[in-house]
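Message: A physicist's question: would you kindly supply an amino acid chain plus fold tokens?
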Amino acid sequence: MSRQLTERRTLNAERKPPFPSCDAPRYSACVRPRDLAALEFPRVCARLAEFATSSAGAERCRALAPVADRGAADAALERAWQCFRLLEEHGEPPLRAFADVRPHLRSAAHEGFALDGKMLVAVGQTLETIRTTAAYFRRHGDTADALRDLPTRLAAFPHLEQALHHALDDDGTVRDQASDALARVRVAIRRLRESLTRKLEELVQRRSMADVVADTYVTLRNNRFVVPLRAGAAAQVQGVVQDRSVSGETLFVEPLFAVELNNELLLAVREEELIVQRILADLTALVGAEHEAIAHSVDALIDVDCLVARGRFARLYRCTRPTFSDGTIALRAARHPGLLFTGRAVTPVDLLLPVDRHVLVVSGPNTGGKTVALKTLGLCALMAQSGILIPVAEGARLPCWGAVFADVGDEQSIERNLSTFSAHIANLREIAASGVDVPLVLLDEPGVGTDPEEGAALAVALLGFFDARGARLAITTHYTPVKLFALDSARCTVAAVDFDVDTLTPRYRLVYESIGRSLALPIARRLGLPESLLAAAEQAQSQQARVLGAALEHLERLRTQLEAELSRASEHTAALAARDAESQRLAGELRERRRSAWADELREARAFVRQLKEEGRVQLQGVRAAAERAAFQRFTREQEAAIAAREAPATAAADRRAPVDAPLVVAARVGDQVAVGDRGIHGELLAVDGARAWIQRGTMRFEVPAAQLRRLGRDAPAPAAPVTVTRAVDEGGATELNLIGLRAREAVERLEDFLDRAVQTGRDSVRIIHGVGSGALRRAIHEYLSTSPYCSSFRGGEGSEGGAGVTMATLRG
């Protein structure tokens, strides 16, 4: 043990200085305790502490405070965000409850001091937690750059951990294997104890002792083994009385033969205690030799516990990482953490203030959520600057403020003899005198508690005062002059809490660029206040207040109506976009089908050649004349050449999307002698079906393209006048097409047929009428024309041609 102590002291002397705590705040924001309490920040920290594993980690969570340094706050947020991502991807680190052993480490550094076994076991368990936690971050830290310092800060002490585990049981008892001397003395103790108890048990179990012993067991008194004897018969056994029962009827006697054995046992037990004490002192010295390095590792472990607690908090409440802006406030779908802690559903609120606006004025009736919105903004700011992820939607932005001041709720001080109004004024005086650069100031009903006219004037003055000093201000108000001032000021953004004026129920969201009515009288009427009283109150209202109230009510109903219409228009636009996308999809499918048709035709042509060759071989076996064989081979070669010639332009023809199923009119009639192309291949025309025809030559029947047929004279073996193959087109040769009222898909199909006929009849240009409408039909037509093989160019119509409702297309020759 002494050799281990010397080695550990040498290693401690060579160890580099430990890393400082990276999560300790370096620059505190100027936030007063009263502001933290008013915004319920201590409640957030207390809830966060419940996610910590250790009491020290929980205390560090409760001690979190906002910092004014943007770099420090951003780094703390990034660490919390990356820890949250690690928990999401790789699960929890192996953190378990550990003791804050730092005070005991300082004690262990004193020469000759010995920690008890339980505390040394706690040190060993903490060292094990440090080692396994460091391994977790070392294993998964490649994706978390901001946490790469943790494995280094969580320095492990495997030799010390092993020594403690080898010497101590989980309950702090020193193991026999800790020392050879301890093992020997414990063997002696067990031997002496067994011998002594066996002899005493033999004594009390003798029949002759039945009237002497009070009970047949052996017990301890004054650390010596004794037997219970009846008080009246105890003199029959020579020995030393060590104790007596409460009733006095039983004496606990150490027989004379047991005295020597008890003495030997006591000496052995004392020797065991001395050996155990030396072992504990040696183990304590090992710990003391590393006490500073261990303390820094424990401090890092507490940091990790607090960090993981923030990750767990973010997982439960669906928090995100905000970014610090240069002035913009953009918190969408923000939820007040205190409401989340209740477990009830929370309606999110959008808190928005552009960089060129410095004041947010929220108005509307009581119970509508004005104060909650105000506190949500302040609390999110405090959490973000404390390195805690906030419960808002992704993409949140807000400034890093030098201070957050709040004047929220009813303030009064009985001890200082201050009324509510006076308490508010005293608080505002402190805020105004703070001298902090770019603070966030939250005022709930400024000017309340005094004459409404003077209170409104004071509120307006406060807006100008704090704005002039560069503060960002968010206030709630019922005062009409404050609302009108904010509505007229380019530095202010107004918002009203949304309220159903028909049912007088809040919707708990903010409607921007709107001011809200207080609705005091309608709410009072709904709550059952006598109608006569309400009528008197309405009569007492000033004419200006009544006119403004009626105007606001009209605007609110108009806003609701416009929102409903906007929603319907958005749905209609979305439906049109979906139909347009469907039209595009169907047009694409149509083009693909046409390409597939050409590919199928090519495959059929190749199959025809293969069939022709196979049938030709069969026929050749029965053909003896060399001339006939040569003619047939020539026919086969010509067919192969025809197929090859057709295959080359097939792809271009597919792009032109020429219809493959248009009916054909063949000048040759069934039964006529026809030739295929100009190669002299001929036979009897059996049938024509669309683009395909069948001819008979001798015993063979062939399928050929109808477009290549030429009619021959009935008796002429050579080609004669060509077979005329034309598509059934409109001989009238129309030059314009009206597509108004058609869906995009149907219009494109009709336009394609129309252009095909126009090209066949030699038209140079055509006029396409599609109307103006939503523009969807015009876009579909232009998209088709841009890829059509029939069209070389197109343009919108001139005024004399029909304007925007017409497209002029120039056709390919």
Notes: The first helix runs from residue 2 to 14.
